[in-house]
Every structure is written in C-alpha cells, then in structure tokens.
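ok trying this again, last paste got cut off
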Amino acid sequence: MSEALTRRDFLALTAAGLATGSAALGAAAPKKLYAYVSSWTKGPGFGKGGGGVSVFTVNMADGSLVPVSRTGPEFDNLNGGGLGISPSGRFLYVTNEVGDLDGKRGAGGGVLAFAINQQDGSLTHLNTQRSLGTDPCNLAIDATGTRVLVANHGSAQPVIRIVKKNGVPEVQNLFDHGSVVMFAVKSDGSLEPACDAAAFGEEVGPVSQVPGQAHSVYIDPSNRFVVACDVGADHLYQFRFDPASRSLGTAKVFATPPGRATRHAAFHPRLPYFFVINERESSLSSFKFDSATGDLQMFQTVPTVVEGYSGPRNAPADLRVHPNGKFVYGGNRGDESIAIFKLDEKTGQLTPVDIVKTQGAAREFNFDPSGKFLFAANPQSNAVVTFAVDPDTGRMTPTGAKAEVPKPVCIHFSML
C-alpha cells in the first residue's frame, strides 16, 4: 500500500536520506517519497486563495518538503478536504468540501479522482462525482483499491417547514443528512457514480443540538469492517465491508457519551484497538475492537490538554497511531499542540508522554511511512511544519523545516 512500507520501499526510503554519490554506475535510481497536500479555499477566519492539491518531494535527511507541482488553475476553487492515495500509488482521491458543487445550490459536494504520474508525481484529473451530501470532509480507500468511501459532514443549519398534524400547523426542523457514501473504482482509477449510501439518523444530540454528522470514515486492517465517526449526535457506525459488494449493508450503532463529539479515529495497525479523538471534550478514547464481529467497547478516555487548561477554546481534530504502533498522537486546535501517548500493547492503556506545540492550529497531521517525521498541516498559518519523531520515546521536536502552502488540510504520501 502507498502508506504501508514493503521491505523494498523501506530500504528505498532510508536511502533517500543518504548521499548517493557512491552508488554503482548504472544502478536504478532510488525511489522518491512524494507528499500530497490538499488546500481549502475557505474556512473560519480565512482570507481568499488556496484550493487544489500541491505536490512535494520529501527530503528524508531533514524532513523538508520540496515543491514539485500543483493542480492547475481550473482547480483553484477546489475546497480540498479529505485526501487519500490508492494502495498501488497510481491514483489520488480528494473531496471538494462544499455544499453547492459547480455553483448549483443544494447540489452537495464532490469527490475527484486523479492519476499520479509515476515519473514525476504530477496529477492528471480523471473525473468528478457528486458526493451525495454537504461538505464531504474525509475519505477512505479499501485495501484492494476498488472502493472509495466518503464521509459527508452535512450542515448544522435547520430548515423550517410547516406541516399539519390533525389539521393543526406546526414547525418541523429538517437537517442535511450526514452520510457515508461508497464509490466503485474503474480499472483506469476513475470513479463510478455512487453505488450505495448510508444516512445517519435524525436523532438530535442533547449537547450539540444537531443530528448525526459524519466527520470521518475508516476501514480496518483486515478490510472487513468500516467505522464512521458521528461528530453531531455522538455515535460510531460500523458496517461489514466486502470489496466485491456494491452495498454497505445495515450499520451497527455504538453510542458514545453525550457531548464528546467523535471526530477522527484510527485503527491500530496490528492490535485489536481503535482510538477516537473527541472534539468537544479535549479527550481521546480507546476502544477494544472485536475483529470477528466488528464490535467496539470503550475502556479508557484520557485528556489531550494539561489539567486545569485555561487557554483558548480547544477543539481536538486529528488522531494518528505511529507506524511502529507504540504511540498514539492527538491534535489540539486552540492549544495548538499535539498530545503524545505511549501504548501498552498488552492492555491497550495509554500513558501521557508529552504535549508539543505545532506552530499553528493543525487541522490534520500525518507521519511519513517510516515514522521518522510528523507533518502538521496548519491552515490558518498557511504552512506545513515538520517534526522529527523519536521512535523509542515517541517525542517530537521541530526540525525547522516549514513549507508554505495555502490553507493546508490533509497530507498523504506515496513512494514512486
């Protein structure tokens, strides 16, 4: 897979950070690590500009990002949200996080397919499909590369309708559906129109006062289960997954404590654990994941800020497990930091390690596939900041490398 290293890719990645002058004459050129960064065009407190996807090579000596190319001006209005790269490294998919695709009110958002040039990493647009929902903000690609799943957040603004019950008029509030939508992938990497969709329930959260809103979607390492986070009404939705099927089937629903707002999550790469970052509570929750049934059982919640935190309003955003599986990282917007936890692999318990400032409010962050560096995408400061990561302690320190990117949101990697 593009973000799971084979032994060959690991060796190539290591070699990329070393001098190559002594390489044997005529030897094949080492592979390069490319980084792909999506950019918003709008957002709270932002000015104009941004949009599209930027391409970089990664200097594995110092973690700096070297600009290579960018999507053309025809994609400057692409409000780039969720981004993913196919397991083959040949295709990239990104959501257009809008509610009015192509300027049509009520059209919802979109999901775009691009081919990745295997020589220089540049992108060629293949096609665009409607996401069947408002503000698609996250996506997942299955291990076979034949299905793309998109999470449509939905709007929190109610629509007032007048209905009559037994002849008496009354107000009925309707909301956009939060939803998970599945797309089949053609052999050329382009997307078919949506083949199935699962809308979240109409239940309104007692704290949020909004209904279900899909903020993220994930496929477990076995490629047999899908889990989606409901940031509106505090639920997790789980679907059995079959890449040969065109149906999501019926979801199992797992309620989480009211007011936490399950936002982003991550499966452990090899152990039966699932981790969720909570947007309204400044906390991170751990779940046991039953690989036979897909059931989720919460067993620990830890704070992502210091005790007695009194800084700006904090809203945790992203969560990642280090590629070596030993540490879990949760991002804070407001405190502008990443909380680091050590994982006891036998019990699943998390122990705080450190909280490190990210030099901006990172909406998302990611590790390069080797786990040597962490890259924080800070849309308000228009920068992707690089941190070196100690694989033994989990601690991270800024390298000084900072790439200027307009409103960066997501960053993913591919070895080419």
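PB: full thing came through this time. The radius of gyration is 21 Å.
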